[in-house]
Amino acid sequence: MIVDRKIKLLSIVLLGLFLFSTALIGCGPVDDDEIDVGDPVDPVVEDPDEARPPEDRILRYTMANTPQIDPARGSDHASASALVNLYDTLMYPNYDGTIEPHVATDWDVSEDGLTYTFNLRDDVVFHNGDNLTAHDVVFSMERLLTVGEGYAYLFTGRVEQVTALDEYTVEFQLSETFGPFLAALVRLYIVNKDLVLDNIDDGAYGDMGDYGTEWLRDNDAGSGPYMVRELLHGEHFIADKYDDYWSGFEPNNPEGFKLIGSNEPVTVRTLIARRELEISDEYQPAENYQAMADIEGVEVAEFASGKILQLTLHNQKPPTDCIHFRRAMAHIIDYEGLTEHAFPGALPAQGPVSTALPGHYANVTVYEHSIEKAQEELQQSQYYDELDNYPIDVVWVSETPDREKLALDVQAKAVAAGIQVNVVRTPWVSLVEQVSSPETTPHAAIVLMPPHYGEAGSLLESGFHSDSLGTWENMSWRDDEAIDSYINQALSTVDRDERFQRYYEAQERIMEVLPAIPVLDEPEKHAYQKAYMAWEPAERLERGEMVLPVVGYMFYMKNIEFIE
Predict the structure, then answer these.
(1) Predicted local confidence at residue 18, as pLDDT
(2) Where are the beta strands (DSSP E) in 209-358?
(3) Residues 246, 251, 257, 263: what is their CA dihedral angle, to the nearest 10 degrees?
(4) Closest Cα to residue 345, out of 296, 314, 301?
(5) Which of 302, 510, 518, 536 could form a disulfide with 349 if both were Cys (CB 3.0 to 4.6 A apart)?
């Protein structure tokens, strides 16, 4: 059955929400002075009406880390912001919540929902001059599934076979129906097959050696609008415009971009004030956003996020292996206090899925802040009579300073309930390493959970399905058959209403057993140089139009223009 393009786009509007921005994490009535963002910086800038873009027209922005630019491995925010510029995909997510064809021109879907056939553009050229063909699409999917990292989980166990029917026609055969398949394809970054094969080294993938993973760590094999110039891990990533890009450029698009792998608050604020940074990361303390908003020519844009800040709990490690202890922790958190004092604009989480995501269950069980109820739960815990012997570590990521506020507030409230909490500051890379094993995973860690496409199923699968255990998104070490079953049933259901019902059941089960405690539903904030740049999502926001951030695509450089 040939699916009419317009009808198809309408049917997957909600799937394209793809909210993937990141939000700060906060806590309750902790004094803002506890987070040191340094002394005020004198902007010392010219009149904003005379502001000029950088002479080299390189757009600069900050992230918490430098990117992993191998499209079979990268998935965090920094990586996604680089990948969307280096590589093309079959589908593209719009800010209004729809998705549209990109390298694909149109597609057919079989009546049983298991076979998708895509026709491709014939004018897409890789950065080395090779034409992009269906064979590259096949190779890219097979490589992603084999390496098994990054966004592979979206397709693993679902894509049975990919076949190039001819040079510009590719067929995907699914092993089971997957309702959000088209929306998920915005994460299949297409690599140049021949170029990767020319750069294979010894490795663990049989005839494919290392599948080019070492080479792609510092180089690209893409056809996107920008191409790699330099990657200094831990410092910065620079990319330049690819002049032969198939869809062209606007005259004032950046000539390139520089991702700075540091979000230290004083540095970010100083660079913004001196007009040496165009867009800030979204991990800044609330007081830093206010300071930057006071700089002439700078504005702070605030977008709907779709992300949930949560306290993930180790479900196999005493005492957080006890459901009553986990429920006590849920009652300890001062949800309203966090939003009122430390994180303006955020809302108390209403379950494990953001209210902005289609598939959120409005009637899900939530926990209120109550030391009395926390103590009642503790009295039912097997550890109640020896709480002094079971202090717990609450880890916050050092690159996100506002998260310390949440950790400190949990520590303060826990004392009143009789729980000893140690606040532990840990670099992001170290935390990712620690959570790969249940033996080294901490009792609790503060993480921001993002959806990778625009439905509840994305967040539920990456954050709560047993297949994702041992990743930064799911460090609970809870293998729960009921949760897995609800998620699996939902994702294999084509009918939207039926699929959402399964999502609801999964969310209720999650709140019953608490592998993690949802804390805040936060907006995404960025300070940017409005005086000399036009940033499409921010402009849409000003016009009152829908802006649904998709991780990485907020930094798609073709949607940014410098103003002379």
Answers:
(1) 36
(2) 226-232, 236-241, 256-260, 298-313, 347-348
(3) -130
(4) 301
(5) 518
Residues 95-146 pLDDT 10s = 877 789 999 999 999 999 999 999 999 999 999 999 999 999 999 999 999 9
* Tens-digit pLDDT profile for residues 155-164: 999 999 999 9
Q: What is the mean pLDDT of residues 24-43?
A: 42
pLDDT at 24: 33
Cis peptide before 319 (omega within 30 of 0): yes
Mean of pLDDT over the chain: 90
b/e sequence 53-73, b meaning 16+ C-beta within 10 Å: bbeeebbbbbbbbbbbbbbbb
Q: Compute the distance between CA of residue 7 and CA of residue 399 in angstroms, rounded to an integer.
A: 44
Burial 230-245 (b: 16+ CB within 10 A, else e): ebeeeebbbbebbeeb
Backbone angles phi, psi at 9, to 5 degrees: -65, -40
d(CA 303, CA 311): 23
Q: What 3-state class would DSSP assign to 363?
A: coil
CATH: 3.30.470.20, 3.30.43.10, 3.90.76.10, 3.40.190.10. Which one for 5-16+83-201? 3.90.76.10
> Mean pLDDT over residues 369-378, rounded?
97
Q: What CATH architecture is 38-67+213-300+525-562? A: 3-Layer(aba) Sandwich (3.40)
Classify domain 305-522 at the CATH topology level. Dipeptide-binding Protein; domain 3 (3.10.105)
Distance CA 551, CA 500 (A): 23
Contact 489, 502 (CB under 8 A): yes
Q: How far apart are CA 351 and CA 195, in angstroms?
A: 45
Q: What is the pLDDT of residues 277-311, one digit of tens each?
A: 999 999 898 899 999 999 999 999 988 778 899 99
Per-residue pLDDT band for 513 (boundaries 50, 70, 90) equals very high
What's the rounded Cα separation, in Å, for the pair 69 and 83? 6
Measure the CA–CA gap between 524 and 538, rounded to whole angstroms: 12
Q: Record the pTM.
A: 0.79
Strand-pair category, 159-166 with 560-562:
unpaired
* Lowest mean pLDDT, pick from 9-18, 154-163, 536-545: 9-18
Domain boundaries, the chain: 5-16+83-201, 38-67+213-300+525-562, 305-522
Asked if residues 22 and 524 have their Cβ atoms less than 8 Å apart, the reply is yes
Residue 274 carries which side chain, given as an amino acid letter?
A: R
Instruction: State the amino acid at position 150 in one-letter form.
Output: G
User: What does the alpha-carbon distance between residue 278 and residue 274 come to, in Å, rounded to a whole number?
Assistant: 10
Amino acid at 103: V
Output helix, strand, coil percentages for the chain, rounded to the nearest 5. Answer: 35, 20, 45
- Bin 274: left if φ > 0, else alpha if -120 < ψ < 50, else beta: alpha
The mean per-residue pLDDT over the stretch 511-528 comes to: 95
